Amino acid sequence: MSGLDGLRFACQPGCTRCCEQEGYVYLSEEDLRRAARYVGLPAAEFERRYVYRTRRRMRFRKPRGRQCPFLVAEGCAIHPAKPTQCRLFPFWPELVSSRGPWRRMARLCPGIGQGPLIQIGTALETASEMEHAYPALYGRSSSTRRRR
Hints:
Elements: E1 6-9, H1 29-39, H2 43-50, E2 51-53, E3 58-60, E4 71-72, E5 75-76, H3 84-88, H4 93-96, H5 99-106, E6 112-119, H6 120-133
Antiparallel strand pairs: 1-6, 2-3, 4-5
Helix pairs in contact: 1-2
C-alpha cells in the first residue's frame, strides 16, 4: 500500500469540482435503473435520452460544455440516485492504492485531507465496490477481481 495507513475525506458543501473534471460518468445496470426511477422515467426511455452504451460499457452522454447531464448550478440533480462511481468518489481503486494518485487528486478535491481518518482497509473495501460495479473498467469480471 505504499505506506498509507488511512485517508481523510469529507465532501465539502457546495463543491462540485469532482463533477467538473474531464472524463466520463460510467453506469452499471443498477445505476441506470436507480437514476431512471428517481427521474420518473422507464429505464429504456432514460437510456435513450441520457446514456451511451457499447457492448461492454455504459456511460452518461456528455452535454456540450459539461461532463454530466445532471450537473446543475446547485450540484447533482440526481444526488439521491447518483451512480456508484460518483457515490464512491474519491475511494476508487486507482486513487486509494498508493499515495501518489491520492495526493494528485487532493490538488483538485478540497475534501481530501478533511474529516475523520478512514482506515485504509475500509477505503480499499469501498474501492472494491467500484471493481464490482464496473468490471469492464478494471479489466476483470466480477468473479476474477482481486481480493484485498
